[in-house]
Design goal:
Helix content: 40-55%
Number of helices: 20
Number of domains: 4
CATH superfamily of the largest domain: Winged helix-like DNA-binding domain superfamily/Winged helix DNA-binding domain
CATH class of the largest domain: Mainly Alpha
CATH architecture of the largest domain: Orthogonal Bundle
CATH topology of the largest domain: Arc Repressor Mutant, subunit A
Strand order of the largest sheet: 2-6-5
Distance between the termini: 48 Å
Largest sheet: 3 strands, antiparallel
Number of strands: 10
């Protein structure tokens, strides 16, 4: 069993569905039988005795138990968000029992092919044995969702989103403390004891209630095929990238890179990883930040220092320095002042900056919730106010539907909502971009380049 590997596309990991522990074990066992080279689904044979031992089921009446499991799976529907809409599909299309042979032949629904076959990128993989010992269906589900983000080491969920992805039925565990006790803490204990990852979590309030949860993920082992950020950055020379094969949003992000880096596989992988976990706006603002602040791109800089741009971009993406750049929220200190600080003071200052970034992120999360609830006439008025805050250049970009212009408009709209709702007091316009106004948290790093 330790040699069996589960591979699922990230879209399938993110799908909405509800399965019991036994049903999840059957599905994952079948998925582990798919080979990376398979171009089509085969008929998958489930040996009942082997599966019973692997899944820890009761031997008494196992044949009838498996029959009930597969019968339910034939009716279980999962929902997958696709580029063209919503796909509703069952896990299995058929289950054929062979009397006297002690096995059942199972077939996946053909609509699942793009999510299980020939996976080249944007997929999550793990050993089958990692989840077969988990007793809670919620533990299995949370393992998949966190395993997907092992390299990022953090994952955030709005509470309603978390309930849907975990398959928590409507009306069940309505109180967050009940959800925490029966779902999160149970999974926390099981994952720490039985799997290769563990986690801690933070409860984040939106208004008076817990509206968001942040998971901090720890990996107990480093998988052989898993490149960390440092390895990606060390790819100084990489083959050309076929940008024509990339999705439109990825193409747009690559187009924002300095020309000499647009064909680097190492940087493209870095962008894809953060695009999958944080989406377009997050990656875009950190590219723009790195383009402006990295000394590696300044005139008369030696080409030998070119790799410093990758280092700078990776750091910006990891800690979202781009947010501070756009909103000018970090405490600004001159480089000389920073040099005079002791190591302890510098670390304390860095933590303050990170806390400020977290607070800004939470404020904008609240603003987006308000925006989604406003009536059209209210939104129209706020949108007009937002346009007035934009520079002529920014407004022109927005009117011609440039991605950067759209991003700038959304930020100004959030500013307006925060002002009207009292989430945050109005902030002064961005200060000059001269060296003395750089965020102190990166001044040291910029000097090191």
């Amino acid at each position: 069993m330790k040699n069996l590997i589960v591979r699922k596309s990230n879209d399938l990991v993110e799908a909405s569905y509800k399965l019991s522990t036994a049903e999840q074990r059957v599905v994952l066992f079948l998925i582990s039988m798919i080979q990376p080279s398979d171009k089509d689904f085969r008929e998958y044979i489930l040996p009942i005795k082997e599966f019973v031992e692997m899944a820890g089921l009761q031997h008494k009446g196992e044949y009838g138990e498996i029959k009930e499991i597969t019968k339910r799976l034939l009716g279980r529907v999962l929902e997958i968000t696709t580029p063209t809409g919503l796909l509703q599909v069952a896990w299995l299309s058929s289950a054929e029992y062979q009397d006297g042979a002690g096995r059942v032949i199972l077939n996946f629904d053909k609509k699942l092919k793009p999510y299980l076959l020939q996976l080249k990128d944007r997929f999550t993989k793990f050993g089958l044995y990692q989840v077969m010992r988990l007793k809670s269906s919620y533990s299995i589900r949370l393992y998949e969702l966190l395993k997907q983000y092992t390299k990022i080491r953090e994952r955030n969920f709005l509470i309603d989103e978390f309930r849907a992805l975990m398959g928590v039925e409507k009306g069940l565990y309505k109180n967050f403390n009940d959800l925490k006790r029966n779902v999160i803490l149970v999974a926390k204990k099981e994952l720490a004891e039985q799997t290769d990852i563990s986690f801690n979590f933070e409860e984040i309030k939106i208004g008076r209630r817990v509206g968001k949860i942040r998971f901090k993920i720890k990996s107990k082992i480093l998988e052989k095929d898993q490149m960390d950020e440092a390895e990606i950055i060390r790819e100084a020379f990489a083959p050309k990238v076929d940008s024509q094969a990339e999705p439109e949003e990825i193409k747009s992000l690559i187009g924002l890179l300095p020309e000499q880096y647009q064909n680097k596989v190492s940087i493209t992988k870095l962008l894809k990883a953060y695009f999958d976990s944080h989406k377009f706006d997050y990656v875009m603002r950190n590219i723009i930040y790195s383009n402006d602040r990295s000394n590696a791109l300044k005139p008369d800089t030696s080409t030998e220092n070119g790799s410093n741009y990758r280092v700078y971009l990776a750091k910006a993406l990891k800690d979202d320095y781009g947010l501070a750049y756009y909103e000018d929220q970090l405490v600004k200190k001159e480089a000389e002042q920073l040099k005079q600080k002791t190591f302890i003071d510098a670390e304390k200052h860095k933590q303050q900056e990170l806390n400020r970034i977290d607070q800004e992120r939470e404020n904008r999360e609240k603003a987006r919730i308000f925006i989604a609830s406003y009536a059209p006439e209210t939104m129209q008025a706020y949108e007009e106010e937002a346009k007035k805050l934009m520079s002529p250049e920014s407004l022109a970009r927005y009117l011609r539907k440039d991605p950067i212009g759209n991003f700038e408009f959304k930020r100004r709209l959030e500013d307006i909502v925060m002002k009207h709702t009292g989430i945050r007091k109005p902030q002064p316009e961005a200060a000059s971009e001269s060296p003395e106004n750089k965020p102190a948290g990166l001044e040291k790093e910029a000097a090191a380049e």
